[in-house]
Every structure is written in structure tokens, then in C-alpha cells.
Amino acid sequence: MQTLFPEVDKQKQERLVACYSQKYFSKPLGRDDLFPGVYEMLVKLNEAGYLLAVATGKTRVGLQKALQATGTEELFRATRCADETASKPDPRMLREIIKHTNTKKERSLMVGDSVHDLQMAHNAIFLLLRCHVAHTQKNSYNNTIRYCACNSQLNY
């Protein structure tokens, strides 16, 4: 929250988090909330032997709710949440996932859709696949990070 609203005092940031959590947890989730084809893609990647992980700004409770509701929990080898480690754009989440999965950074790809994802990948010196979605913001990293932009359905 400090990254998103640095000018807002800590008390107001805590109220914003509480309000967001209330709204987030009041919405029923299901597999239909995933973008079309995402579940099938995750299954195929998993079956092909790719190690999948999640690095999120959500809390552990929020992520578990989303994974369970969408039936994707078993597809991910590792997950890291903002309430367990340094939040984005600090690269610690990615480093912890790499260590946990015993994977080389050079053999890893981060998929992200936000300015915080771009900054975290840049800070970790990671290859990034940037997916454009409606809420993606323009930022100064567009010219300094090598990334692939996917504006249409990926073939897998």
C-alpha cells in the first residue's frame, strides 16, 4: 500500500486495505473468473513439466481463497504473498520462489500485467512476459526492460 499511496498516512492505508479486503472477500469466486483458456493452459504447462508459481500482492488468505475457488491450487509448486515477504516491486518474492523450486533464474519466466510486476522483474533481472489487460499502467520501464507483449490469445 505504501508503494501505491506513498502520500497517504499509515492509518488511512490500513483503512484502504480493510475496505479492499471486505470487497474482495464478499465477491464469490470461481473458475469462470479466470480469463478464457487460462485454466487449460496452466494444466498443459503443468503436465509438460513446467514448475508454476505465484508471486502476489495479495495476502495468504486472499490467495488461498482464489486458488481454491478456481481449482488451481494444485497446479502451483510455490506461492509467495505480500504478507509473508517483501512486497512488489522488491524482488525477494521471486528469489524465494527460485530457491524453493531449485530452479535457475536464467530458466525462469515471470508473467505479469502491472507496473509493479515490471519493476519486480527489472529489480530481479528476470525475463518478463508482459500481458496487457485493461488496468495496466504506462511506466518508465517500458524502454528499459526486454519483454514480450501478448495482446491476443497465446498458443500453447
In short:
It contains five helices and five strands, in the order ααβαβαβαββ.
Task: Walk me through the structure.
The protein is an alpha/beta fold. The chain has one domain (10-150): HAD superfamily/HAD-like (Rossmann fold, 3-Layer(aba) Sandwich). Helix content is 37%, strand content 13%. The chain has helices spanning 10-26, 38-47, 60-70, 92-101, 115-124; strands spanning 53-56, 78-81, 109-112, 127-131, 147-150. The strands form 2 sheets. It has a 3-stranded parallel beta sheet with strand order 3-4-5, covered by helices on one side. A two-stranded parallel ribbon has the order 1-2. Strand 3 (109-112), helix 5 (115-124) and strand 4 form a beta-alpha-beta unit. It is globular. The chain starts with 9 loop residues before the first helix and ends in a 6-residue tail after the last strand.
> Which strand order spans the largest sheet, edge to edge or round the barrel?
3-4-5
SSE order in H/E notation? HHEHEHEHEE
Per DSSP, the total helix count is: 5
- Residue-averaged pLDDT, rounded? 80
**Low-confidence stretches at least 5 residues in length (pLDDT < 50)?**
134-156
Tell me the name of the CATH homologous superfamily: HAD superfamily/HAD-like
Q: What is the strand content?
A: 5-15%
**How many domain units?**
1
Q: Please tell me the CATH architecture by its name.
A: 3-Layer(aba) Sandwich
